[in-house]
Amino acid sequence: MPRLFTAIEVPDEIGLALAGYRGGLSGARWIDVENYHITLRFLGDIDEETAQEAAYLLGQVRRPPFEVTITGPDAFGGGRPRALVAKVSPSPAILELQAEHERLARRAGLPAESRKFAPHVTLARLRDASPRAVADYLGLRGGPPGLSFRAEQFVLYSSRDSVGGGPYVVEAAYPLR
Ligand code: 3AM
């Protein structure tokens, strides 16, 4: 079964700048730059029919392009950090697009996503990274990087069947207009 999710792609020049965050934290498994993305809605391992329905519904979305601003590095997981991310400003435009994907996913018959949406680019998965080391890392690199770009489309990505992770393949692209 395909494992699918919707996302905003990260342009090459932004990915290159974000790659500057790589390194300097033990226990980090750094994501390949070509796999950087901003997940909007994880659809999961779904059957072909549901995937077709979701792809069709996504094609009905009518929204204008919008500005995406990277606000800086952060960690998810609190006392047990599990991911290092570049946070993305939760602008009304990205929140509304994500909310629409959530509604469409439910119309396609998928269960509701219970986690609150916090837009981000995952930079590394963390295993055995101490909260102290993560705090030190962030202390050295914190602050807004002054990175933004215009999202002109969103995409439906597939990841490795049942396993997840990159390489991610763009199965369909949907222009914002
Ligand atoms: O954008 P990132 O890399 O943070 O964490 C997974 C990844 O997000 C997330 O979907 C993206 C593409 O794999 N993901 C994986 N399993 C998930 C789940 N069960 C999930 N999101 C929500 N629920």
Automatic annotation (TrEMBL):
Keywords: Hydrolase. A motif (HXTX 2) lies at residues 120-123. The keyword Lyase does not apply. It catalyses: a 3'-end 2',3'-cyclophospho-ribonucleotide-RNA + H2O = a 3'-end 2'-phospho-ribonucleotide-RNA + H(+). A motif (HXTX 1) lies at residues 37-40. It comes from the Bacteria. Belongs to the 2H phosphoesterase superfamily. ThpR family. This is RNA 2',3'-cyclic phosphodiesterase. It comes from Methylopila turkensis. The lineage of its organism: Bacteria, Pseudomonadati, Pseudomonadota, Alphaproteobacteria, Hyphomicrobiales. The gene is ligT.
